[in-house]
């Protein structure tokens, strides 16, 4: 991680009135969360896209739930890392701070971040496809697959955004608003290839925000970044935070 780039990022962030952060799978991977696509993008010989869509759920809800129940069991064993912890502290550091995530694991909230905009939903939330009732359930494994709604008896589904579905209206609206007004926009641990979330980076740049990318490798939108810190978010964010706090490194 280049020291001059680090100091530039710190200067930009220190002078910012509004800071927006977008996090992706790389931030969760540092906690040991398996990437969504796993090895080769397959699950039991099937493409992940084939078990993460409304069509897949309609055809075989039990198979879809087995996939998500496995993920829930793995997520139950992981904890937030230093990147999550820094971002949780930053919500009280800046006059206006917004945290947007593509991750569904709930680790930002576990690190005590408030009002996280979860663009792709949350794997710990379950929604009835009949009456729309939502609930949080951190039981892993679930005792019954697929689970059924205690209110109406209908099938329940994971509270995540599947391929072909729209983003949650409220989270998407608030994320766009925070992006359009950001002085500094940080992109942490994402390859920036999944839209519409990746479009936030383009909007921020078009609106004149200073873009800071935190990622070991260049993302698809790295050319928009004024500063790129080539390090994991769990290393780069604590380094930024230390300098913001006046701690020599």
Characterize the structure shown.
- This protein is an alpha/beta fold.
- The protein folds into 2 domains: 3-33 and 80-120 and 167-244, 3-Layer(aba) Sandwich (Rossmann fold); 39-77 and 126-160, SIR2/SIRT2 'Small Domain'.
- It has 9 helices and 11 strands.
- A hairpin with a 2-residue loop joins strand 2 (42-43) and strand 3 (46-47).
- Helix 5 packs parallel to helix 9.
- The radius of gyration is 19 Å and the shape is elongated.
- The model has no long low-confidence stretch (mean pLDDT 92).
List the helices and strands and how they pair.
Blueprint (H helix, E strand, L loop, with lengths): L2 H13 L2 E6 L1 H5 L12 E2 L2 E2 L6 H6 L1 H15 L6 H9 L5 E6 L5 H4 L6 E2 L2 E8 L5 E3 L19 E5 L8 H12 L3 E5 L10 H8 L3 E5 L12 E3 L3 H12 L5
Parallel strand pairs: 1-4, 1-9, 4-5, 9-10, 10-11
Antiparallel strand pairs: 2-3, 6-7, 6-8
Helix pairs in contact: 1-9, 5-9, 7-8
């Amino acid at each position: 991680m280049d020291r001059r780039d680090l100091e530039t990022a710190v200067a930009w962030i220190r002078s910012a009135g509004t800071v927006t952060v977008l996090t992706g799978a790389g931030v969760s991977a540092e906690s040991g969360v398996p990437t969504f696509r796993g090895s080769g993008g397959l699950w039991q010989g099937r493409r992940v896209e084939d078990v993460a869509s409304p069509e897949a759920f309609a055809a075989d809800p039990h198979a879809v739930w087995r996939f998500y129940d496995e993920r829930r069991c793995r997520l139950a064993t992981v904890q937030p890392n230093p990147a999550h912890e820094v971002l949780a502290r930053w919500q009280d550091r800046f006059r206006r701070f917004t945290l947007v995530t593509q991750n569904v694991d709930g680790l930002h909230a576990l690190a005590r971040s408030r009002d996280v905009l979860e663009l792709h939903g949350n794997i710990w939330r379950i929604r009835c496809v009949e009456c729309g009732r939502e609930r949080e359930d951190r039981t892993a494994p679930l005792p019954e697959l697929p689970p059924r709604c205690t209110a109406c008896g209908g099938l329940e589904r994971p509270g995540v955004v599947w391929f072909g579905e729209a983003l949650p209206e409220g989270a998407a609206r608030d994320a766009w608003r925070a992006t359009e007004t950001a002085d500094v926009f940080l992109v942490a641990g994402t390859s920036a290839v999944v839209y519409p979330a990746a479009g936030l980076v383009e909007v921020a740049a078009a609106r004149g925000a200073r873009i800071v990318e935190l990622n070991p490798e260049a993302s698809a939108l790295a050319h928009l970044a004024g500063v790129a810190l080539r390090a994991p978010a769990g290393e780069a964010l604590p380094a930024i935070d230390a300098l913001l706090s006046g701690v020599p490194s």
